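Re: the request from the purification team.
They wanted to know what the chain is likely to look like in 3D before they choose a buffer screen. I agreed to run a prediction and write the result into the notebook, where they can find it.
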Amino acid sequence: VLTTVAAIHISAGDMAAAARLWRDVAKRQPDNIRAREAVLELVINQKDVERAKQAAADVASVAGGSSARARVADASVKVLEVRESLKKRRAAGDTDATLSPDEQKGVDEARTLLIEAENDRPGWGQIQTLFADVDQLRGDTAGAIDRLKKAVELGPSNPAVVRRLVALLYTANRLEEAQAAIATLGAEGEGGSDRLTAERELQAGKVEEAIALAERSVSKDSSNVDDLLWRGQLLERSGK
């Protein structure tokens, strides 16, 4: 019942309430590793570094400190720390896109943890999505695309991962691959079709039509970084 209510809160966007319920599940069932991983995922979505560290430690306490699950949990926290550090620097007016020494150290440590986890569990898709996070922080878009493709291949199909892959393929102007990825989403891929059409309109010189489609497919209040990056790059190429 608690996990079902937590899912309802997630659907409504109330991550804090969902996290509280998953913590209650973990308290009632101390060996429930899924509950502890759910808490970690939720506090990472809330960008709460300190709680994420504690949640990762809780995962390790159940799964074992040298387990693939513990390494993935630690890597996800390090990725969050680097992202939050970059966010603070940019908010302070720092326009340097280069990682600081501490940020580079965090990225390197996350990558090492993921390599170790992949050696233990090569078929775990989450490892590939975290590798993609690391590659993006390093500025390696092609590497991130390859990792997300591998995550999709490993399955089961995760629409959020596919949408992220599509967004990166657009930024790399790999439109045929983006179209193939969109097709796997079925009805959920309609927004992606708009983007593909926008790219084609831009290539044909129909700038205003391309911009209208871009604005329609990505809302102005979107919090999806990859979606915003694609829209911004299309506007830049449109001279806008």
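For the purification team: The chain is about 75% helix and 0% strand.
Please add any questions underneath this entry.
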